[in-house]
Amino acid sequence: MAERILSSDEITEMEKLTVDRLVETIERGDREGAKKLARRMYNEFLSMHDLYRNWATATLSFVGRRFGDKVLEEVMDEGVKAWWGPTMDKMPQDLRARVKMFTAGLRGHLQPLHIEEDDEKIVIQMRPCGSGGRLVLEGKYEGPDAMMTVKGKQFLTYGRDSFPVYCAHEPVMERVDIEAHGAPFVVVEPGREIGKDHCNFIIYKDRSKVPAKYYERLGLKKPEAAK
Predict the structure, then answer these.
(1) 194 beta partners
(2) Residue range(s) defining the domain that contains residue 191
(3) pLDDT digits (tens, 9 = 90+) for 144-172
(4) 3-state secondary structure the chain
(5) Per-residue pLDDT tens over the stretch 125-146
(6) Quick check: is 136 in a domain?
(7) Is residue 196 part of a domain?
(8) pLDDT of res. 226
């Protein structure tokens, strides 16, 4: 019989959710063990987050290069409607609760947040951006295996000369929201140099106060009802 490489106790521990192991460790009063497991759980989540981030970006890059920007936009539209639309439908009507729910979603990118509020709006930054920004910082848009950069001033680039393909879901999110609700819940002001400069997620307390420029960069006109 071949020698076993795992003991029964090791298998039992490996089968458990990390969060369950963490709770057990806290209940035992093992503070150092709990810290170690908390960090392990973070690394497990980050590894899976980045796997899907890279997979999605590589797939979008293939679609854009093989079929062009128009088909890429159609694919983005179909994909965003599958998750952003239902997310918006589930959000509570209370603005404070909506902001907290949206912020909880951003925390899923596993990076620190910076939040400011004034009389008109709430501005949220990931520092750094856990998805699109980190792709740039990690050099994923460089070299022979580079992900696609969308070229030319167009809808998918917010009218810029170029835009990382992963980040091109943001204008689609805004358009989907405008089509469904007449005004966007959140607009994105991309950093001047994505990855190096922080992007702003801007939530206007009164949707009718969202400036017309955020419609116009999508090729839309701000509805009269939203003015």
Answers:
(1) 197
(2) 68-226
(3) 999 999 999 999 999 999 999 999 999 99
(4) CCCCCCCHHHHHHHHCCHHHHHHHHHHHCCHHHHHHHHHHHHHHHHHHHHHHHHHHHHHHHHHHHHHCHHHHHHHHHHHHHHHHHHHHHHCCCCHHHHHHHHHHHHHCCCCCEEEEECCCEEEEEECCCCCHHHHHHCCCCCCCCCCCEEECCCHHHCCCCEEECHHHHHHHHHHHHHHHHCCCCCEEECCCCECCECCEEEEECCHHHCCCHHHHCCCCCCCHHHC
(5) 999 999 999 999 999 999 999 9
(6) yes
(7) yes
(8) 63
* Cα 87 to Cα 114: distance, rounded to the nearest angstrom: 22
- pLDDT at position 114 is 98
pLDDT per position as a tens digit, 12-47 = 999 999 999 999 999 999 999 999 999 999 999 999
- Cβ pair 152, 168 in contact under 8 A: no
Q: How many domains does the chain have?
A: 1
- For residue 218 the two structure tokens come to 């999508």
For 20, phi then psi, to 5°, come to: -70, -40
Residue 41 lies in a domain: no
Asked whether residue 188 is assigned to any structural domain, the reply reads yes
Q: Strand order of the sheet with strand 121-126?
A: 113-117, 121-126, 200-204, 187-189
Tens of pLDDT along 80-101?
A: 999 999 999 999 999 999 999 9
Dihedral sign (CA 150, 156, 159, 164): negative
Q: Which two tokens stand for residue 34?
A: 């709990």
